[in-house]
Design goal:
The protein contains 21 helices and no strands. About 50% of the residues are buried.
Length: about 450
């Protein structure tokens, strides 16, 4: 038997391997920021040979959302049918196909196909990986393990912002290809199947072996707890549960938070970061440097999130986060307005960078992680997975529509109008949070349900 310290290191290694997939997902989402700048140029960095139209670039930014909507469907069922580990390995394959195709693409259609494959994996990872991490972690370190998911995700975005502008299309995609490949190989070799899946299939011998491998001090007692949890999650018809007031209210909160997470502007700011800095005429002439700074702020802010949440509570942090986002967007929109009205803005050309840094900071400490956290705390067990998946689909639809219509919004509302639109939608969400979302910190599940049922 391995000693407890070795077992703990083993679990960390397993979660680290899985988080390479989380890293790949956000790297893929931020991929379009440096790439769209290349595809809008006439230089040798553009493998298409000529600048792409706004419509073509918007499809490249958004077609991954269509892949997500289709790709998530089988992964709602596969974890319970074939297991968590095989499902995660399958999720890694479309990422590798995506980066491989994008590396050799000479036509815009090939890029569309590449981005579609990328989308198949992205949302599916957010559905399956947190489930797996929660099931292989102990109660004492489950929170820490789940927090690393967000940290690795933000690091993936930072990789795209830092490498994309300076590598050719081929080498940028080959660089990113290494991460899903490393995930696939390492996870295949070292990761165990979740003991929860074995219990679900009534293979208690395999479940016990999995628990022993994960270093549980009393695998037999742990096995009994898992049996009780799985039986409890099966109790109650989903439709009947959804008809109850607390479940309806909890589902509405989950849908609103996940959808408006994207409508706050995050989908646009992530995909078009570099183009935004070019258009805004930032004081930092190199738009790639500005994007890298924003990516760095997002990454380091992800470390603050767990400490702030534990001290101040979910609802309080969410309110501060949304308020900060609104202020940043109002200022950023005003900058665009003054620029379009030909005011002298020479002395405040640093505002675009500060506003996007501020947006990402406030987003990372609240609006980024809170929808998933609050959703997991307010929903009954038998509808949690269903509602979380539906909420994720709504969020993906919102993200896809924003990315596809970004240029349309700018052409009709102007740049300042688009940013102010995001601020208005965020204001609507803030009012909703203040009126409807309960504080869950330090409250039992029964107390939360009682609050929602009022």
């Amino acid at each position: 038997m391995l000693n407890s310290f070795t077992h703990e290191k083993y679990v960390y290694l397993v979660v680290l391997s899985g988080n390479l997939l989380a890293l790949t997902g956000d790297a893929s989402m931020s991929w379009s920021s440096p790439v769209l700048t290349k595809l809008n140029s006439t230089g040798s960095d553009n493998p298409m040979g000529a600048p792409l139209s706004e419509d073509e670039r918007s499809w490249i930014a958004s077609v991954s959302g269509l892949g997500s909507l289709i790709g998530v469907i089988p992964f709602v069922f596969l974890p319970d049918l074939i297991g968590r580990k095989p499902s995660l390995l399958l999720i890694g394959i479309p990422h590798m196909i995506s980066f491989g195709l994008a590396a050799i693409a000479k036509s815009v259609f090939t890029l569309y196909v590449a981005r579609f494959f990328s989308g198949i994996s992205t949302i599916s990872c957010y559905v399956v990986l947190p489930m797996y991490v929660a099931e292989v972690s102990e109660n004492s370190n489950r929170g820490l393990m789940l927090v690393t998911f967000g940290i690795f995700s933000h690091f993936g975005s930072l990789l795209s912002y830092s490498a994309g502008p300076y590598f050719s299309m081929f080498w940028f995609n080959m660089f990113l290809f290494m991460f899903p490949a490393a995930f696939f190989l390492s996870f295949l070799l070292i990761a165990p199947e979740s003991p929860y899946f074995h219990v679900l299939k009534k293979d208690y011998t395999a479940a016990t072996k999995s628990l022993e491998k994960l270093g549980r001090s009393n695998p037999e007692a742990e096995l009994e707890k898992i049996k009780v949890e799985i039986e409890g999650s099966k109790k109650g018809d989903i439709l009947k549960t959804l008809m109850k007031k607390h479940a309806l209210k909890g589902s509405l909160i989950a849908l609103m938070l996940t959808t408006f997470q994207q409508l706050s502007g995050q989908a646009v700011f992530t995909s078009y970061t570099q183009e935004i800095f070019v258009e805004a005429g930032s004081s930092i002439k190199d738009s790639a440097t500005s994007s890298l700074i924003v990516g760095s702020v997002t990454f380091f802010a992800s470390f603050l999130c767990p400490f702030v949440i534990d001290k101040k509570g979910r609802r309080f942090v969410l309110v501060i986060s949304i308020t900060g986002i609104i202020i940043m967007e109002l200022i950023f929109g005003s900058y665009y307005y003054l620029r379009e009205e030909n005011y002298d803005i020479t002395s405040v050309k640093w505002l675009p960078l500060v506003c996007l840094m501020g947006y990402m900071l406030f987003f990372s400490i609240g609006m980024g992680p809170m929808p998933l956290t609050i959703t997991s705390e307010i929903l009954p067990g038998n509808i949690k997975f269903f509602v979380s998946t539906v909420s994720g689909i709504f969020g993906t639809i919102s993200s896809t529509l924003l990315r596809k219509n970004y240029y349309v919004l700018n052409n009709n509302l102007h740049y300042f109008g688009t940013i102010w639109l995001f601020a208005g939608l965020s204001t609507f969400l803030l009012i909703f949070v203040l009126l409807v979302v309960p504080e869950t910190k330090g409250k039992s599940f029964s107390e939360i349900l009682k609050k929602l049922g009022k």
